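User:
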Amino acid sequence: MKIVMNFAQNVGGKPDLESIVSKVKDVASSMAPRDGVIELNLVGKRRMTYLNKEYKGRRGAAEILTFDYSESDDDLDYQRDGQTLGEIYIYYGKIARSADRLGISRKAYLLRIIVHGLCHLQGYGHRDEIQARKMEEVEKRLLSPILKKEEMAVLFG
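Assistant: Predicted structure:
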């Protein structure tokens, strides 16, 4: 998979995201399909709140929202070039607060959240305990070569 990044104006987190982009691309390139494109969007609180309410029916701003276009219906046909697999929206403000609360670097937590979104685009979910465990194992496998053992322990217990 290839990653295309989009940054909303005046949102935090751009330097952190830019500093881990090579790691994100390494992870994405190890996933199928190799010719697919993922759009990674860094947005502010207002945009994330809107997206969360409009598409997920939830209140407030989420850390991440993932939109999978591989199974899109006519109302959500967003495949502009025939290869766009999906979009990941990131709200850095909430990610930063979560990282600080956990006592982990913002970059490590941001990377974990992006990998979580990439796993969703691969069909993994967490609707039940079995799915959640399977998804977490994939996340661990993808992140363990990249993150320090201490970071992995904080993120996955």
